[in-house]
Amino acid sequence: MTGTGALIRLALRRDRVLLPLWVLLLGFLPVGTVSTYEGLYPDAASRTTLNASSGDNPSIAVIYGKAFDLTTPGGFTAWRYGVFLALFLGLVAAFTVTRHTRAEEDSGRLELLGSAVVGRYAALTAAVAVAAGTSAVVGAVQAVTLIGAGLPAAGSLTFGAGMAGAGLAFTAVAAVTAQLTEYSRSANGLAGGVLGVAFLLRAVGDSSPGASWLSWLSPLSWTQLARPFAGERPWVLFIPLVAAVVVGTGGYLLLPRRDLGAGLLPMRPGPPTAPPSLRGPLGLAWRLQRGALIGWTVAMAVIGAVFGSIADGIGGLVGDSEQVRGIFERMGGAQGIVDTYLALIGSVFGMVVAVYAVLVALRLRTEETGGRAEPVLAAGVGRTAWMGAHLVFALLGSALLLTVAGLGAGLAHGLRAGDLGTQLGHAVGGAIAQLPAVWVVAGVAALLFGLLPTLSAAGSWAVVGVVVGIGLFGPALNAGQAVLDVSPFTHVPKVPGPAVSAAPLVWLTAIGVFTAAAGLAAFRRRDVG
């Protein structure tokens, strides 16, 4: 463990911008729901109606999880944010561990540090400490702010502790995945796969009474199963602690069984000669991006089918509340609640695909800092061709993912509703309409890479966090239009909807292309590395 303290300080120094942004976003988000809930459901009758219409609705449970008590602001907050905040915090924790372990091995920095007076377990321990500490701080901020808003202390502490526990669980998962593969992208992919399985287990368990035991297997359910503000069960909070200790111990046991820079999973050796496709930058970009694109395509097909299959039952969330209907209209259009839902999930697909677009754009920075871009650019490949080849996958790959998600949602909903032709077009149209907004996010990431490369990762993820936060929670929190307009997804026409204007799509496309082109121009004029 020698040198652990120094590596913790180094990690905090490197993440001094990114981690505080996530703490602020995830920590202060739940408290904004308290006053909003009281405005939407001011009396006991409206709250009882909400509880009856949404509490036992299996379609709603797929998205938000089990609702134990929606008659109080605290119970509504725990139901509305329990799953998604745990999901985002799990991603933050997993990526933090990978960034300070496997990514450091990829770059060669960990080998340099290891040659000094640094113990073999120091880097893993430092990464786990930073990720676990971030999770704990997020949970503490949530608990303190909810208590400050007047909610019961017991429920607030249970909610915050449950969130921190979810972060600890996925910190341990990342500690294991970082030992399995040779590359940080693969480690993050495995951790993301575990998150996806956890979401599916929770969705099936929460929506199927006969399979409710599956929810207990998902870390994303443990916060809600602790029942904050609904007759707390503090003993459930020991589950993430035990899971984190057991799984995390596995990571420590696996670490000495591999060489530095290697993974435990065997890597397939490459061919003795390069194929003709690698003669150009586009072929190289395809070789580097194809694994992620294939994995994301499968994931978006599954996500689309899951969300499309519950479209018929979504009307139960609204009930008799005109205020909640207004929220849905602000989030996704106004032509029927099912069309509203299809427009809403189209926006969700767009925000998810924006994450993929940023990952593709940031691969440019990974290649540059890893020393692999300079030899390529020193030969006959120009900077514009090299960067443009990767941006092709950020732009066209996003189009493919949105199309697949729309097809999955349209097929699942159309077959259940008996109107495949109409619903398939509605779902695909709603998904494809998000493409210009995704291009804006990708263009900003490209601009940051070209103009401010050292801040490209933190800046790009900050943009994603703001966009996703506004899109998912802004309307429900009654955020002002000026705040909502910050997100490009706010300006996308609601498809399906009564009237679709092409002007916003043209403007968003122009902004995305302009920012990407500006990033290309800036990259041509700066030093590599």
Automatic annotation (TrEMBL):
* Keyword list, A-Z: Membrane, Transmembrane, Transmembrane helix
Q: Does the keyword Nucleotide-binding apply?
A: no
Which organism encodes this protein? Actinokineospora spheciospongiae
What broad taxonomic lineage does this protein's source fall under? Bacteria, Bacillati, Actinomycetota, Actinomycetes, Pseudonocardiales
Q: Which residues cross the membrane?
A: 17-37, 78-97, 118-141, 153-175, 187-205, 235-255, 293-311, 341-362, 391-415, 427-449, 461-484, 504-523
What this protein is called in its record is: Putative ABC transporter membrane protein
